[in-house]
Amino acid sequence: MHAVPSGLALGGSGGRGFLCAVSEAVRADEGVEPGWLGVSLRRLAASPPAMVALAAVPAGLVVIGIVGWLIGSRLGVDSTVYRSGAYALLTGEPLYDKMFLSAEPSWAQLPFTYPPTGAPLFVPLLLFPTQVSWGVLGALSVLALLLVVRVAVQAVPNRPQWMRPARTTLLLGVAVLAIEPVWRTLALGQVNLILLALVVVDVLVLGRSAGRARYAGGVLVGVAAAVKLTPLIFVPHLWLTGRRADAVRALGTFLALQALIFAVIPHDFRRFWTVAVSDPERTGLTFWAGNQSLHGLLTRLTDQAPWSLAAAIGVAAVLAVPAVYLVRRFHLAGQPLPALLTTAFFGLLVSPVSWSHHYVWVAPLLVYLLSRLPAPLPHGWSRVRALAGVGAVVLVFASCVLLIIRRSDPNNPAGPHPELAWTPPELVLGSAYLLVPLVAGVLVLLRWRRASR
To answer: 368, 389 in Cβ contact below 8 A?
Structure first.
């Protein structure tokens, strides 16, 4: 890969339309730090080597998709479900009456678990064969990941001098492909990285604009929540950080899309909100090791006790107090990225189901942790202490611990369920993802308490 000029963000022919639209939203006279994203995109467009470097992985995914189509490979289980949902929408097939859709191949017969508002947003996938649509979605996801890294870098202005935006975006954007939530998202054909980008751009770019772009604040959060419900957690985040008009716009966008889809497919709308949204058979094994939420943990601890969900809600209510405190304190200190990360990881904890690939928020978390490193790094034991946070996060999310530990086969619900008989060490390892935000939150609160003495 070639070096990229300082200040470049990301690009590639597949994502230039979306990025140019974002650039227009943050023109030179409208941002808190005027026009940084627009400048980055213009420099990128003027540098063919940078375009080639940043488009290499997305292009490779598209090529793999094309080859997979030609030889009949099984690529993209979840992207196949998305595509089948779009096909069902256009053909009038009910989305939730059966456990799988007619357009799904035999190797990807899974229920459509997403809101009906997600189906029309997946219609562009029908332009390509199944495997090629996986490659296209993967390419867009990588571009979205690079955009997230670039925006996150910009959100930490007091970063070390060595953490140059262009180099960090390129190197870290490639490096995080090795962490399990990211590569699993790409392998499955999930939309997690795209939804991550929508939220990050809304909160950290549109939300910090001073011109016309501010009137779009909240819209991207509303769109993301229309695809998966979990981004609704960012509506109270917008409210808590003083962006009340954006919070209203986010909720309004979400509700407007619901009203629109009700007018088009009222049966599916009613079926989703009255049956499918809470149907445990559609979500899968909630005690499975891959469910890294409080509900998943308590389900494993209590041997699937019927009150485990109520207990998880109670624990979430208790954790909401320090979470709100952290968000407010970070916000008042002018640190929007850690405030956003606090809300994101709190949302992952309290959601009834948070599969391991939902933890793509570790990408901007690594940007933040790297920005906190001293420059230059100290020597000896002090260096080990300085790198401990970054090292621990990388170890957890790149070690594939959830794939190594004893776990159930999600495709065989009637098979053995070793999670329900985990030993204490297995329980710790099997809860590694959800322990990261819990431990980090405790450490931050303790540090603040010591600093206030």
So the answer is: no
Q: What is the mean pLDDT of each run of 10 residues along the chain (453 residues)?
A: 34 40 38 60 70 86 96 94 97 95 93 96 97 97 96 91 87 94 97 98 86 85 97 97 96 98 97 92 88 96 93 97 97 96 98 96 96 86 87 95 88 83 94 96 91 77
SS3 242: coil
Neighbour tally for 79: CB within 10 Å: 27
In a domain, 209, yes or no: yes
Number of folded domains that form the chain: 1
Domain with 356, as residue range(s), is 16-452
**Residues whose CB falls within 8 Å of the CB of residue 165, separated by 6 or more in sequence, listed in order:** 6, 7, 8, 9, 40, 150, 153, 154
Model-level pTM?
Answer: 0.89
Helices 180-188/381-398 angle, 10° precision: 20
Residues 183, 72: Cα–Cα separation, whole Å: 22
Cα gap 12→55, rounded to integer Å: 5
Is 62 inside a domain boundary?
yes
Kindly state whether residue 9 falls inside one of the protein's structural domains: no
